[in-house]
Amino acid sequence: MHDRWDLLIIDARLATLAGDAGYGLIENGAIGSKDGVIVFAGRMDALPRVPEALAARVEPAHGALVTPGLIDCHTHLVFAGDRAHEFELRLQGASYEDIAKAGGGILSTVLETRAASEDDLFATSLPRARALLRDGVTTLEIKSGYGLDTDTEIKMLRVARRIGVELGVGVRTTFLGAHALPLEFAGRADDYIAFVCNKMLPAVAQAGLADAVDAFCEGIGFTLAQTQRVFDAARMHGLPIKLHAEQLSHLGGAALAARYLALSADHLEHITDDDVRAMAASGTVAVLLPGAFVCLRETKLPPIESLRAHGVAMAVATDCNPGTSPLLSLRLAMALACAQFRLTPEESLRGTTINAAKSLGLRDRGRLQVGQRADLVVWDAQDPAELCYWLGGNPARRVIAGGVFVV
Ligand code: DI6
Ligand code: FE
User: Strand order in 137-143's β-sheet?
Assistant: First the structure.
């Protein structure tokens, strides 16, 4: 007896993203999965038998677009409280830096996150992940960085992992101990970095709670030399590197990240052509975060044409965080990447699938191809450009993660 597939979606328009360019469209397509893995992705007329003989469950898509599940490769969505009042202050003229220096900003979220129990933190963070999921996200990265002490950083990372289990989606965790200088280390940034490298990172690595290490290399964050110390520690623990680089100023973080063969450098509004060349050579993904750009009312655009010309893989993410990007839709980030950064809709979709996977070091997702994880979205759309065209709305008809319907 034929070993039946679990699921077969038929009569679909597949955007496979299988090649190096283009959507990889397959008209009159079908996609089958078994045990959470894609076992067929091709034209219906290439199916070996009639659908009902092939799979336990057959779902007609009625011509709808099917894409890989979206991947949000940069979020800070585990946190307590919110910073709506800072948003109002910024609208009255205060800058993000002013607010941070006055003890607001990241540090105010740190106080609330430290005070929250693990269950409360889980309960307040889960709906944010669920909102992303409803809009088509099947894998998300979640950073720590609102604890800045060992217990709270570990609490955040545990909550992040728990969100993945609860929702049945992929979660990749990133340790961002070097996010801000906690009050107890005021005036002693180098001591804090020593604590990050010698105490927190080993504890997090030992607990197996981090898939990567990140830092905030910025005037209001940490210097290039401090960032390098964090990278060296990450390397010692065999953990890959990501970096918040050149968001508000140019400190050389992107070039340093490239030197350490970082998975990604993120934000990048202030990178130079030399940085772009270094990232191209190292294969470091440029993660673009238009939500923060819009919320901070930035005007300096990341150099998209240069990134494109040098063949740097571009990803797009929400940067979901309470300060600079309270954004709960990756599709809206894709739309903003088009409207603000002039990405094409195709670049935006590659940026939340195949290139986002690359920025997380994942090779098993991001395309509709045999052997990939069965992460897919059936959209109420036919044209892939619609994913970046509609602002808002709820076009994700079905969301499937690891072969299981989660929406
Ligand atoms: N860059 C960001 O966009 C977030 N962190 C960072 O290093 C902002 C975090 C916050 O303001 O809470
Ligand atoms: Fe960020």
Answer: 70-72, 137-143, 170-178, 212-217, 242-245, 264-267, 285-288, 314-316
Residue with the nearest Cα to atom 6 of ligand 1?
216
- Tell me the per-residue pLDDT of 244-287, one tens digit each, with 9 for 90 and over: 999 999 999 999 999 999 999 999 999 999 999 999 999 999 99
- Per the CB < 8 A criterion, the answer to whether 286 and 279 are in contact is yes
Residue from 77, 186, 79 nearest 132 by CA:
77
Q: Which residues fall inside 5 Å of ion ligand 2, going by CB?
A: 319
Residue in the structure block whose two tokens are 């005037």: 219
Q: What is the signed CA dihedral for 333, 336, 337, 338, rounded to 10 degrees?
A: 130
Q: 3-class DSSP state for residue 378?
A: strand
Q: What is the pLDDT of residues 122-142, one digit of tens each?
A: 999 999 999 999 999 999 999
21-59 pLDDT tens trace: 999 999 999 999 999 999 999 999 999 999 999 999 999
Work out the pLDDT band at 14, boundaries 50, 70, 90: very high
Residue with the smallest CA separation from ligand 1 atom 10 is: 323
Q: Which residues contact 372 (CB under 8 A, 6 or more apart)?
A: 37, 38, 68, 364, 365, 366
Percent over 70 (pLDDT), the chain: 100
Identify the residues whose C-beta falls under 6 Å from ligand 1.
Answer: 76, 105-106, 109, 179, 216, 244, 292, 319, 321-325
Q: Whose CA is nearest to atom 3 of ligand 1?
A: 324
DSSP state of 241: B
Domains of the chain as residue ranges with CATH: 7-68+367-405 (2.30.40.10), 70-359 (3.20.20.140)
